[in-house]
Amino acid sequence: MSKKAAIRSTLPGRIKVILQNFWGMSLIFIFLMILLRALELYLVFSNHVLPFAVGDILKDIFIQDLTWLAYLLGLLFTCYLVVVLISSPLAKWLLLLFLTILVLVQAALVFYFFKTLLPLGKDLFAYSTEDLLLTIQASGQLNFFSVSMLLFSFVMVGFLMHLGTRFFRFPLKATLFLTGIFILSVVTVILLPDLVDDSATEVETNVTRNKSRYLTEESFDYLMYGGEYYFDFYLRSGTEDLIVEKEFVDDTYPFAHKADYPDVLSPFFDSLEQAPNLVFIFLESFGKAYSGKDAYLGSFTPFLDSLEQHSLVWMHALSSTGRTFGLQPGVFGGLPFGEKGFLELYQEFPYHETLLSILRKNGYETRYFIGADKNFDHVGSFIEYQQPVQFVDERLFDPKYSKSPSTGNFSWGYADKELFKNGLEKLPRSLESPQVLVFQTQTSHDPYLVPEREKYIQKFENHLSNYLNLSEGQKADYRSYRDIYMTILYADDAVSEFFDEYQKRPEFQNSIFIITGDHRLPEVPMSSRIDRFHVPLIIYSPLIKRPEYFEGVSSHYEITPSILSFLEAQIDIQLPEVVTWQGQVLDTAQTFQSRIAMPLMRNKNQLIDYIHGDIFLSDGQIFQISRGLNIDPITSPNDLNRMIGEFEEFKNKNSYMVQTRRLLPPQ
Q1: For 266, phi and psi rounded to 5 degrees?
Q2: 3-state DSSP: the chain helix, strand, coil percent, rounded to 5?
Q3: Is 11 left (phi over 0), alpha (psi -120 to 50) or beta?
């Protein structure tokens, strides 16, 4: 009897130690997570100019963090009790290790968000290890000091967790009461619906989000549901509200279609006597928000502003993706995304045609110039598939040029002025065939380090005073992003110098220049969910007889079919009968309208946006689009169901294409 009594007498003590270990570490964990949230808010609101105050979102932040901590600790508590049955010391040290890692991950996510204003989600899985290391190196964070600080932080956080088990020694009744309240809270969190403020802007939503919660949910969604699969889809001709009616020809090639793409550009050009040269200028991180007429942040591109006066300009132009990975497939082919962007299909591209391949068959030569590594994002594989006669990346720059400034030993490549100078020097002086020339810049990219820094600091200040005519009070907001705006001013100067030199070449008078941005940069707060896709689109040429600003919504997808139809009408090039362009043609309406339908991919692995006409579907919510690409939330169950149905049909066709590699029938 005494032996059984002794066993019973040790049980409360064991329960007390088990719960003390859990709560000792968990309370330290909660404190550190609250501290990191406070640090995040301080960094974000002290370094970014936001159109709302921290008090406006405190309630939503509290709900986000409280529900996440309750859910996370509830899951850990369950696992902890299971391991305790095997070994109490093992459970204690595993819990300490896991909580320490969670704190460090949260700190890294806070720093990432503070720099980009975008929470890290499933796009983490879309990049190769090599690309991720290059990105970290470019930011200057991969060095001895940062690695040492990481190891030091790991030890210190682990020590604090261990200290918590020594400091928080509650009586058994207190730990049982605390555990009971905790279990009740977890059950409440599970049963309560997710409270989302539909009226919040994307920036507000992003600041409110708990960053480790967002990454966890996105990772779970990707790992559980991110595989390639498709359901049935139905091939439909374009609806009457779109510009082009498409006749789909084969259900085993769901994107292949016949269509009459009208020539919308000829009315603005002189009649061509020979095949024109096409010069594409792709500007890194150029958004409409800070370039050209009606730029709501004020324009930082004085040269392009002057060029607009002699050009065809689309005021409501969209990129197809919120990052650079969609630029070339979007502009040259209107191609579907695949799972992580069309470029990620590089190991086995489905047979496809693009502007470059079609013009090659019509006697054109393609020459591509980029200041960075062509292998990043597999741009090189895609361009080489088009069979260019010249492809120059950072490896082929003249030794007299120096790479861009860097924060460490790594640089993205050569700055924009060097890109244009090197490219022009490597062009043959005499060109026998018509050309497609492509110049892709990279200076206006994180870490936003501009050459000739002192010169551009002064230029930035002069621009605020003399070009934007800002008051001293207004200038403070812009100075928060001085380094970013300086790179935009620098890129604009690089384009100006390029035109100064190119117009000396004999082919200048017979050249057509297509200038656009790949996406808007995220570090300057965006006004809406669609703002990241709003980019400049300018077509300039000495051959233009009637410059014009256009209000119709267009996108990168519309560039290729519009140019090909124009060239077919002007110089009788031969076009394939069946194509896969997802776009329409450039809308030359001079009053605001939207007659396009297209998916938009924010980041790799993040396909949650779709536009059809003046309705924008974003993350399950619909908005009405108005002039300036402003969006307002609307309630319309019929429109919501229709948009979701169309979007799902695209995603099904997209997944089918990835699995089968059937995009365009061989011709």
Answers
A1: -55, -40
A2: 50, 15, 35
A3: alpha
541 conformational bin, left if phi > 0, alpha if psi -120 to 50, beta if neither: beta
Mean pLDDT of the chain: 88
d(CA 412, CA 447): 9
Bridge partners, residue 438, by sequence: 280, 368
Q: What is the pLDDT of residue 6?
A: 47
Asked if 598 and 300 count as a contact pair (C-beta separation under 8 A), the reply is no
513 phi and psi, to 5 degrees?
A: -105, 130
Average pLDDT of the segment spanning 175-201: 65
Percent of the chain at pLDDT > 90 equals: 63
pLDDT of residue 457: 97
- How many C-beta neighbours within 10 Å does residue 11 have? 9
A 10 A CB-CB count for 240 gives: 7
* b/e burial code for range 566-581 (CB count within 10 A of at least 16 → b): bbeebeebeeeebbbb
Please give the structure tokens belonging to residue 157: 């956080």
- CB-based contact 302:391 (threshold 8 Å): no
CA pair distance 15, 421, nearest whole angstrom: 74
Report pLDDT for 140. 55
CB 198 within 8 A of CB 633: yes
Q: What average pLDDT score do residues 461-474 get?
A: 95
Residue 418 and residue 159: Cα distance in Å, rounded?
51
Average pLDDT over residues 456-485: 95
- Non-local CB neighbours of 646 within 8 Å, separated by 6+ positions: 597, 610, 612
pLDDT for residue 71 is more than 90: no
Parallel, antiparallel or unpaired: strands 390-392 and 246-248: unpaired
What residues pair up with 621 in beta bridges, in sequence order? 618
Helix (H) / strand (E) element for 34: namely: helix 2-47
Query: Model confidence over 374-416: pLDDT tens digits?
Result: 998 899 999 999 999 999 999 999 999 988 887 766 677 899 9
| Cα(197)–Cα(637) distance, integer angstroms | 18
Contact 541, 552 (CB under 8 A): no
43 phi, psi to nearest 5 deg: -65, -45
pLDDT at 143: 62
Number of separate helices (H) and strands (E) present in the chain: 18, 19
DSSP 403: P
